[in-house]
Amino acid sequence: MSGAQASGRHTVLMGDPTHFQVVGGANPHTRDRFGRRKSVDRELAIQQWKRMRRTLEQLGVRVHVIPADPKLPGLVYPANAGVMREGQFVLSNLTPTRAGEREVYARELERLGITPQRIESRFEGEADLFPVAEHWIFTHGPIERQRFVARIGWPPWRRVYGFRSDPAALREIAAKAPAQGETIRIELHDERFYHGDTCLCSFGPGRASLLAYLPALAPASQDTLRKRFGERLIELSDDDAAIYAANSFALEIEGQPTLVMPAGSSGQLRALVAEHDTQVIPVDVSEFYKKGGGSVKCMIGDLGGIG
């Protein structure tokens, strides 16, 4: 089938972490201050991955595991596979270091009965395009050739990372998977938060509330979110943003809005989330965040209710 029915069991993609490592170092969390790629404690990562999978399954979620490939360690982050919108799955065009993942995702989706729709513009899936209430948020920023450049200071260089999705993708996505509601464009400003799902998360009843680390956004985008969401906006502290608290997975469990959140978030944040009629379930995936730059949501490709 070309799309997927939204009435079945909540299904997600997760990528087998057997070969998880830093190869390209394509975001600021994958390298140390000298630009050297970080080394993954793979045993710890596998333990954390298994616990997260078990947590999701205990919540009633069906987890479809993408087989590991030693040449494609980024498969552990299938939020970048694409986005499910109005019953159609739009496949991503990933950064060059992860481009090989695209056909793997396409194959796994077809095994689930989903025919992915392809576009040509740079686009990294639900990491940059996700629903909020009856609308959608699309995040973007300058796409750079990743490189080292000279600077004054020590070390005498810095790495340029850039962002991941091109606004030109919106026109193609709308043609393949038209959606009701407005698409709100938000500009990313801080390379540490290189995808929208690292600093923004819609949650709660109808996914109408929003976690946001506003300093990661351009000033005009900060103003847009404050005006649109008002009391439904929870602004993250620096400490909560630093552990990617916004990189959480929102779902409903028997009608109860739930947020699977990275362990270590502040008690104050958890209390604020609870005020929005949402239960918090913490899970420790620190090895994936500290070494790969992706936490809970990055490790999940959300297919919704497909059977």
Strand neighbour order, sheet with most strands? 2-1-16
Average of pLDDT: 94
How many helices? The count is 7
Q: What distance lies between the first and last C-alpha atoms, to the nearest angstrom?
A: 12 Å
The level 1 CATH classification of the domain at 10-189 and 218-228 and 283-305 is: Alpha Beta
Order of helices and strands: EHEEEHEEEEHEEEHEHEEHEHE
The computed structural class is: alpha/beta
Overall body shape: globular
Query: How many strand elements?
Result: 16
Strand proportion, as a percent range, falls in 15-25%
Which value, in Å, is the CA radius of gyration?
A: 18 Å
Unreliable stretches = 1-6
CATH architecture of the domain at 10-189 and 218-228 and 283-305: 5-stranded Propeller
| Fold-level CATH name of the domain at 10-189 and 218-228 and 283-305 | L-arginine/glycine Amidinotransferase, Chain A
Which bin fits the share of residues in helices?
Answer: 10-25%
* Main sheet characteristics: 3 strands, mixed
* CATH homology group of the domain at 10-189 and 218-228 and 283-305: L-arginine/glycine Amidinotransferase, Chain A
